[in-house]
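Running this now, will post back.
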Amino acid sequence: SGVHRIRIIPCGCADAPKGEERYTHYLAMGLFPASLQNIKTAFTFGVLDDFRMDNLECKTAGLNYWHKVVRITSNEFPKSVPDRYRELLRTSRLWRNIKYRKWNGFGHRNSRQPGPGSLALFCAACPQPNVNLPAGWDKDPVRWKYMRGFMFDGNFTAEQLKMKNPEDDVHLTDGDAFFTTRKPYYDHLKVALEIREQRTCHDFTAVHKANMLKQHLLHTGIGAAACPRHGYFVPHSVVDFHKGERHVSGPDFNI
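Update: finished.
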């Protein structure tokens, strides 16, 4: 229903959460605070879910969604609505991460933390031991029918520009979903040997650009392994490309 100014007084009882733990007061009321200290802005669970669905299905960008909220608040005087676009982006990222953890059985107990690929689901139709294979499948004389295939491909239009302030880029996950864990992957790139191929045709530029570095880009694309039959991405298999179509960047590490 738009942006509202309301007064919230946290509980002052002796056993009530204090300090940074006061955010639990807001969560109990269905409000997700945009910060933990000196809380001034909070979003309802409903608006965060609505933005997530709009972004997922309608491809609505955060700025466009915020403009919609502004119009709902005051269609006549949109400039009078406080700008909370930055807070919406930050809070929606946290909300989405919490949703992923909840859906995959994490977050209910602090001691249980997600591991590599734990926040992503693999193809339900592909053969998986202890999931959809019969007991004793490995002793079947024709066990080749349980073989699982993989394919690897890259997207070289998914470029990422270098950030002016890279320290502001806070990662909420590290290898917990589809992307690989950063440190093992970067360690692999440091020691992996690259065989430079020679062009067999003057117009075949993929080989020539395989090791070309673009100074303004942090990543030149992404690559991922997928199930060739159903098109599902493999958890913990997506990698960043730092140059061109180098084989060591993706397939070598995933294999």
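The longest helix spans residues 85-103. More later if anyone needs it.
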